[in-house]
Amino acid sequence: MLKFNHISTQKTYMIQSALGRSLDVKNGRAKEGNGVQLYDKNATFAQQWDLIDAGNGYCYIRSKLGYFLDVKGANKHPGAEVQIWVSTSSDAQLWKLILGDEGNFHIQSKLGTYLEVHGRGSANGALLLMSTKKDTTAQKWKFYRIPSALYLSNFKPHRDGFNFVNDFQNNVISGIDVRTSGLCGGMSYTALDYYFSRRAIPSAPFRPAEGTTLHRYIYKRQVSSIIDNLDKWAELTFNPFGVRDSEFANWGLEGRLNTLRNHLRSKRPIALCLSDVEGRIDKGHQVVAIGMDLGRFSPRTKQFSEDVKIFLYDPNYPNRMITMVPDMARNCWEYLDEDQAYRTYFIDERYKRKLPPVLPKQTATQPGLVHELLVNFCTGSDDLRGGNDNVNLRVDYADRTYENFLNLNNSQRWIDNYDHTVSLILTKPHRLPEIKSITLSTTFKGGSGGDNWNLQKLKITAKGLGVNKMILDKKGDPFFRFTGKKNNLPISIG
To answer: What is the distance between the alpha carbons of residues 115 and 40, in angstroms, rounded to a whole number?
Structure first.
């Protein structure tokens, strides 16, 4: 827990200007892009702010309305506007509280500027802008603690979650185009495995390719997350004509909410399973609960259910904290930040921690040199079979040396209309102009049983210390069709 003198993160505060009025979300409107102003103290959610530890001496300032204090457009210059916005974990939402005289604080953005009252001074409706540091009352703030039922684990989506979107397509039956979408349970379980084992989660911004160590692990954890909870998923399918909609939605406000609070009170994130509004198992979803805020909610009377918020790491929305709230009028639980709703949730207490893989980490150390190629293959309407039919890549350099990368698809089938990104670590770093060409080749033998593969798009990005440049971007319909007779494709770079 981060502490700024007497102020602690994971607590709720009213923030008051030295000019005499409170930091307030304009018109109490919970909508991204809404402005922030000064207004008379009224103790509404528009004036209640949670301080959330972001590490390295910074915090997030989150409105009880569910959005985060944000410098509009990440503008570093004086005069930048201040708004509320969905969680982005960017510098525009990171703040440092700097203690000054008489218990006042300056609120500094990580962008470098300071929160300041602008325009009409202390009047109701005075807007806030960013400015250079000044020793004036317009930049001085006091924090007054508000009793709150806020519980947050130490799981941070931008640090402990994956950096890629859950857009997996899964080839369920080899050789036949039967597929499922997503590995949300596997990603949630794997993220928890890395978190509890205190191992850094892989930071790659792209989905792991079929057959890689990480993909195999996530897929295995996906299977566990489903099989271990089949009875609970099945229970939610019995809902003839929606007669149990209200019952299911209310389960989330009853004992489950207390169980969730007990986990989060000990700062332990936990897997949650979200039931589709129609009760379809194939439309269910799995996430990680990382915090909650009960507000004024009373478990005994169920009054003020609208105050309840559950904070999530959702693999569909990387690097963000998603807020889920109950809507008892519609008998569902919905995302505050997205157009997404579920009938109810249940807590996955059958999750058992596993030791996740430690992946080789290649760090570029020589400035200006390329040490890695990220190759993105997009398959068109004819798949790459895998098995004995695979794809290789050769890189040719200006000094007439070359290196081969074999079986990029790990003998796995690459299904049609889907893409894979493969990381190739060069044996020796090279300057960008030294990379002269690449050659793709396949191991197809041809004949009546031979494979054909439509390569729709091909992108290559050169990576290194101070290097991040796309050096190839080809596409067509298809860009190239590999067959038994046409199994070699040389491409010049530059």
So the answer is: 18
